[in-house]
Design a protein that fits this description.
single chain, mainly alpha
Length: 170
């Protein structure tokens, strides 16, 4: 390839790159700034406008509202604090062992019908504050469970023990 052909190829490659750069930067005449000949000058104009207007400054000391801009650190810490407050409200100060839904579910035996299970289990307890209708087998088992083996040995939990005692005493 001749030197002239190499120079023409270089110029064409540079022209293609310049065209791509112009497309990438956009049409500077459509900038809303007064400076339209240089991107750097346009950006500097905007920075000066922002500095002189008193707006868009970062103010981490502000608590809320208005035209306040917080830094990313302030936003992150605010979100974390709100998240922790919500978590504390949900778990009502539960210890670390029960402060997630997974831990609560595990503590309840992962039973989706926990309320029904507990109600059934409570219904299977011998009451001392009210009468219950129990089968003979249930009465015998209850007597055995509370150590009243004498009643279970007699085989009739409904037997009138006072009458048995009175008869035995006589």
């Amino acid at each position: 390839m001749s030197l002239e052909a190499k120079i023409v190829a270089l110029a064409q490659a540079m022209g293609t790159d310049v065209k791509a750069l112009r497309l990438a930067q956009g049409d500077l005449t459509s900038l809303t700034t007064t400076t339209k000949t240089s991107l750097v000058a346009a950006i500097n104009e905007l920075v000066l406008l922002v500095a002189n207007s008193g707006g868009a400054g970062i103010d981490d000391g502000a608590t809320s509202g208005g035209a306040v801009t917080w830094s990313v650190d302030k936003i992150t810490s605010s979100i974390t604090a709100a998240s922790n407050a919500l978590k504390d409200e949900l778990v009502s100060g539960a210890g670390a062992a029960l402060d997630t839904l997974a831990e609560l579910a595990a503590a309840l035996g992962d039973d989706p019908n926990f309320a029904t299970t507990i109600a059934t289990e409570l219904g299977n307890r011998v009451r001392y504050d009210a009468a219950q209708s129990l089968t003979a087998a249930q009465k015998t088992q209850a007597c055995t469970n509370i150590g009243a083996v004498e009643l279970a040995a007699i085989g009739d939990p409904d037997r009138d023990l006072a009458a048995v005692y009175t008869a035995a005493k006589a």
